[in-house]
Design brief:
The complex is a heterodimer of chains A (about 120) and B (about 110).
Chain A lengths: L4 E3 L2 E4 L5 E6 L6 E8 L3 E9 L2 E4 L8 E7 L2 E6 L8 E8 L2 E2 L6 E2 L3 E2 L3 E5 L1
Parallel strand pairs in A: 2-13
Antiparallel strand pairs in A: 1-3, 3-8, 4-5, 4-9, 5-6, 7-8, 9-12, 9-13, 10-11
Chain B lengths: L3 E3 L2 E5 L4 E7 L6 E7 L5 E8 L4 E4 L2 E6 L4 E6 L8 E8 L8 E2 L3 E6 L1
Parallel strand pairs in B: 2-11
Antiparallel strand pairs in B: 1-3, 3-8, 4-5, 4-9, 6-7, 7-8, 9-10, 9-11
Classes of the chains: A mainly beta (about 120), B mainly beta (about 110).
Amino acid sequence: DAGVIQSPRHEVTEMGQEVTLRCKPISGHNSLFWYRQTMMRGLELLIYFNNNVPIDDSGMPEDRFSAKMPNASFSTLKIQPSEPRDSAVYFCASSSVEVGLAGGHPYNEQFFGPGTRLTVL
Amino acid sequence: GEDVEQSLFLSVREGDSSVINCTYTDSSSTYLYWYKQEPGAGLQLLTYIFSNMDMKQDQRLTVLLNKKDKHLSLRIADTQTGDSAIYFCAEFSSGGSYIPTFGRGTSLIVHP
């Protein structure tokens, strides 16, 4: 398996422009996560999908951010309009909740993509 | 809500042991994880421990869990320059949503 695929790897844009980040999760995984990583805030969970349905979007910073998952193999995170403070590395991760070794307790390993480094000028 | 705390930086000499510490607040944590992030890459699961265990060893890695104090540590024996990375502690509670809570990450710097 190629792992979680993200595109583009790097994006430089000007303030006010629309930015679309893309993610292809690992085939067969039923959960998808979007994270943002900055020096100031560390790793922040933005939104979480389960079986293509958004479950928790409480981490989405503002209405300028939106995410979709039209099918099990593709998700987008859109920022419109972008601002310099949106500059960060955005990670997509996928997982498949499984019954783990401990007898009925779900074990949840997240598989991260390589990230998209976004710079908004 | 849940909280996971780590120190931000650790510097060690090559060949020494590294110990990265983590504290968490959720007493219902089921699994506790250590993820490693190498420069320019995403996080990758390094090891994990289930909450009914005190210790787990995997080659150069030793995970210690003190459930009473809600303290988790990762010991790397014979630390190498290739171990330089950011190490994230994360906890996961089976009673809640299927979302791990991550710490801020500890940057491990290994110098000759």
